[in-house]
Amino acid sequence: MEQELELAIGVRIRTLRMEKGLTLDDLATASGVSRAMISRIERAEASPTASLLARVCAALGLSLSAFFAEDGEEASPLSRRQDQQVWRDPETGYLRRSVSPPGTSSTVDIVDVEFPPGARVSFPPHAASHGMTQHVWLFDGEMEMTVGETVHRLRPGDCLFMPVGEGHVFYNPGHAPARYCVVLDRGGR
Questions:
Q1: pTM of the predicted structure, to 2 decimals
Q2: CB 96 within 8 Å of CB 152
Q3: Is residue 64 within a helix (H) or strand (E), and if so which, with residue range?
Q4: Are residues 123 and 61 in the same domain?
Q5: Do 9 and 63 share a domain, yes or no?
Q6: Which of 62, 135, 157, 175 has a C-alpha 20 to 30 A away from that of 73?
Q7: Which helix (H) or strand (E) is 35 found in, with range?
Q8: Rounded distance, CA 166 to CA 127, Å?
Q9: pLDDT tens across 101-143, in order?
Q10: CA–CA separation, 111 vs 86, rounded Å?
């Protein structure tokens, strides 16, 4: 199953890159990810981390949720749990479930995340993500969110709003998994 997902990710990146008329070098420049790494991912020889995949998606003008949405699916307003796309970050083990119904005209994506204790993911500033915003709503555990120079300590029930393109760090300082929801607004992208 994991190899199938790696292959699907590679095919999807290559397809989107080609549809946009981008070379590997173009995508590497736009995303800040090396040409060699993008090529390895497209050939399913490497698993992208969450941070790397987010940078590639932003350069392609997509959120992670839009990236994982199935092309050609008939849009339904209902997204059943068993049909929701799940992806595990190979670096941290965090589990990401795309909750929003794919293929709708909404600019909002809802994502359910289970974040392991001690895990840290950094999303560097990226121009292609400017205009996107997100709310991070913590259900269980604890999280430290760094936005710019400010560190926010979240506890269950807390919700943090932030721009996406300015860069941020997700960190679980606790001894238990953190579970939270990300509500991402692509801003009309």
A1: 0.75
A2: no
A3: helix 64-68
A4: no
A5: yes
A6: 135
A7: helix 35-42
A8: 8
A9: 887 888 888 999 999 999 999 887 766 666 789 999 999 999 9
A10: 10
